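Supplementary Methods. Inverse-folding protocol.

Structures were first reduced to a discrete structure-token string of length 342. This string, shown here, constituted the complete conditioning input.
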């Protein structure tokens, strides 16, 4: 029986066949996080690190600083709703490790005011799926396209449970993006030990009763009896365990586009107008659009349709070809890229 070290292409030839993914994981599974990262720097093309500056991501940043003088570039998805302490941490990391950070925000938005002008206030309460897509998934994929990202280092670990319980060191998602999970086998005590031992910068909120930090509106202090490393995230939503970045991209994109499509079919005004009217409690059908009253035409269920906020019922299975051409589909919205019908 041969015990020789397996060899892999330098760089790996993408896309990876399942047989090659299995062979890579069989090798990486027995390595330390530092060894996995060193292997990835040597073998994985187009490698970047996406991070929200959680503890595991910070550990990877620190490890990489000791492995190579040219670590994979950092990408930070700024939802515009992070805590002030998170933005402070980003600056601390940049100074400590002398790193630049590629920052991506919701398309066309530099501030909360920009975002709320476009989508209305508390958009996450109106439609959480589309919110996740607009503030996290679309900016991430814009970053990947613009920067030529083929693979990303993540901070996910199997001990975080839920969808991460069966995590492997290397995965390929439905879009072909390679995801490297160097700390996949570490439990939280190991992470905490490394952070303390190496004086790794951390979010100040972690010492104030928070276990996991995301957007301020979806993060709460963990209470007595709260279980899990991500306690306090998405309180009261037991079915939600991921922010969107690690959910099936095509399913999330399709769901977001369907809901935006519903809004557009409901009224010929652009989506920013719809959300603004909704925030003001107005009904678009009573607004002079220059084309008379429009009817809610939609292929989704009423409980999923954004037009239900106006008390309208959806008409199921209505094709795009039946919609008057005066309705503009070329709206300025990151979830929609259709063109106006002839």
């Amino acid at each position: 029986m041969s015990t020789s070290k397996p060899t892999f292409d330098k760089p790996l030839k993408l896309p990876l066949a399942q047989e090659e993914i299995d062979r890579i994981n069989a090798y990486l599974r027995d390595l330390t996080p530092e060894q996995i990262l060193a292997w990835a720097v040597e073998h994985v093309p187009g490698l970047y690190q996406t991070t929200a500056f959680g503890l595991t991501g910070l550990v990877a940043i620190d490890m990489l600083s000791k492995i190579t003088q040219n670590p994979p570039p950092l990408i930070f998805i700024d939802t515009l709703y992070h805590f002030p302490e998170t933005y402070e941490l980003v600056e601390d990391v940049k100074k400590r490790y002398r790193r630049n950070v590629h920052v991506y925000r919701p398309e066309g938005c530099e501030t909360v005011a920009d975002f709320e002008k476009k989508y209305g206030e508390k958009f996450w309460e109106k439609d959480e799926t589309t919110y996740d897509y607009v503030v996290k998934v679309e900016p991430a994929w814009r970053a990947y396209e613009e920067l030529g990202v083929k693979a990303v280092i993540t901070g996910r670990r199997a001990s975080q449970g839920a969808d991460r319980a069966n995590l492997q060191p290397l995965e390929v998602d439905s879009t072909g993006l390679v995801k490297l999970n160097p700390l996949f086998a570490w439990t939280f005590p190991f992470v905490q030990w490394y952070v303390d031992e190496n004086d790794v910068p951390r979010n100040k909120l972690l010492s104030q009763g928070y276990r996991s930090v995301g957007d301020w509106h979806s993060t709460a202090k963990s209470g007595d009896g709260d279980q899990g490393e991500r306690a306090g995230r998405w309180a009261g939503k037991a079915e939600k365990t991921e922010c969107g970045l690690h959910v099936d991209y095509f399913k999330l994109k399709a769901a977001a586009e369907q809901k935006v499509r519903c809004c557009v079919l409901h009224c010929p005004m652009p989506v920013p107008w719809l959300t603004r009217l909704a925030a003001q409690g107005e009904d678009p059908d009573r607004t002079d659009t220059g084309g008379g009253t429009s009817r809610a035409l939609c292929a989704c269920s009423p409980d999923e349709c954004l037009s239900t906020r106006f008390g309208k019922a959806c008409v199921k299975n209505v094709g795009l070809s039946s919609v008057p051409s005066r309705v503009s589909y070329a709206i300025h919205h990151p979830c929609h890229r259709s063109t106006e019908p002839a």
